[in-house]
Amino acid sequence: MGALLVINFGIVVIFVLVFVFFYIKDGEVQKRLLRYEKSLDDLNKEIFKIQKFLKSNEIENGYSEESYKQLKLDLRNTIDDVYAIIEKDREYVDNKLLIIEDKIKEASHFSGSLGNVDDRKIISMFKDGWSIESIAKELMITKSEVEFTLKLANLN
Fold first, then answer.
1. Strand runs labelled E in the chain
2. pLDDT tens readout for residues 108-149
3. Nearest by Cα to 88 from 76, 99, 98, 96
4. Based on the number of CB atoms within 10 Å of its own CB, is 141 exposed (0-12), middle (13-18) or buried (19 or more)?
5. What is the rounded CA–CA span in Å between residue 128 and residue 138?
6. If both were cysteines, with which of 24, 54, 57, 155 could 150 make a disulfide (CB 3.0 to 4.6 Å apart)?
7. Could you read off the pLDDT of 65-79 as tens digits, one per residue?
8. Integer distance in angstroms from the first to the last C-alpha of the chain?
9. Considering all CA atoms of the chain, what is the largest pairwise distance in Å, rounded to the nearest integer?
């Protein structure tokens, strides 16, 4: 009976130690939770102060959601106007470039074969993976003519 009493006493001591351990851990968790709660409360107070400050400034400065929407709409219209002007200028520049390219081709001192070869064919062959040398051989023109055509097309 003495051994049974010692075993029962050991089990009770183990349960008491486990209970104390969990009690201490629970206390630490509670302290952490209280700190987090306090931090959250402080943050909520700061958010409230900021919202109050923003509302008072909106009233003082006359800013409202309507004025923000109007400002946004005005800004969008201005951006659209700028895009329209840029597009008009781009068309003008493109037309001028075409005129200049035509004049360069007319005034070109290259051999007459350049006029006979379709530039689109050179560009198409280059895009299909042909080398400059092989295009020149195939179309029976010089490499410099091929390079010039590709340079005008911004491909080389």
1. none
2. 645 444 455 688 899 999 999 999 999 999 998 999 999 999
3. 96
4. buried
5. 14
6. 155
7. 777 788 889 989 999
8. 102
9. 124
